[in-house]
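Obj.: predict assembly geometry.
Materials: sequence records (below).
Method: joint structure prediction, all chains together.
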Amino acid sequence: MVFLEAEMSWNVLISPGQLDRKGLLLRKAIIVHLLEDVTNRRASKEHGYYIAVNQLKAISEGKVRELTGDVLFPVSFTCITQKPMKGEIMVGYVDRILKHGVFLKSGPVESIFLAEKSMSDYKYIGGENPMFMNDHSKLEKDTAVRFKVLGFRWMEADRQFQLLATIAGDFLGPL
Amino acid sequence: MDRIPNGRRKGSVNPHVVLLSDSDSDSEGFIEEMAPVHSKSNGKASSESLKTGGKASSFSKGEASKGKASSGGKGGKGSASNAVPIKSDAELKLQLDIPQNSRMLMNCEAAELLQEIHEHMAILSEDPKIKIPDSFDKAFQYAKAGNHFTAANSVKQALEPLKKCGVNDGEICMIANIGPETAEEVYALVPSLKANRSLTEGPITEALSALANIKAAK
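Observations (raw structure tokens):
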């Protein structure tokens, strides 16, 4: 996951009750709404996971919606996001171990699959504490692993990414 | 079932059929997790790039290189562009997809920025109306754990000379995020640098010794 600082332009909808003659209160209402919108949207395919709003750059003139009386303010701001890139090196922690491979977690990503085939010489060892082992190291729950991102997919319904990892290669594997 | 010879080199439709039924019978937990992947990827294959569909199959299979080649079978839309040469995982190069109006941050830069925001949040969080993205804490931890250095500015300075010998921003960012100790480690983890190794090896070795001086104690 690479951190990005992204400039974005969104519309924020303010209900008539929150409109105030005093500019500061209106500004606050807009910021609160913007933060709420960012939190609710969680992530996007284009920008990745939304981490934090960094800077509010401009609030343009509001447009009244005739039916509801709500006012739509175009807002531009910078946001820190985190997006997966193919071929990058990341560090994650073993979450679950299955016969076919291992699920890792890293930062905001909940589902990173490291298939048995992408582990070169590691072999599955079952039992109460299942693990993958080779001659000199092992992967068990909570092991920190350095891996390479083979690919990723955006899951629109869950608004999150799924990653596919590999540790086949030099300098990759448990840390 | 003879999975390995089937899956290894052939990118045809058949190995997939075999594989899907194979994973069905092998592990309950696995198929539970993977089931939504298949249904969604099938639905999506028509609207999104076939590459994505291919990755879905590789989730079940575990080899992206091959997954790509067989995505035609999965999404039901074969095309000539699927004939991508099979490369080993270790040689997979960094493919950056930076959205418009965005710039990449190294983990050390992000850690400093998020630290600042985190300090502001102590005040903000007193107001229950103010929401903070769920990902903030996880990303903050990730950035802190992935930051190997004491100051982002010094990291930039140490890596700046690499730009002159053709190392791009993405590669520089990767080097900073990996926090490598030897040039060998850099070339193994960022294989795109191998092409100009004769040109970059000297500057990279120099940059690494500069980075070693600003490494944070862990």
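Conclusions so far: Strands of chain B lie at 102-105.
To do: check interface contacts against the pulldown list.
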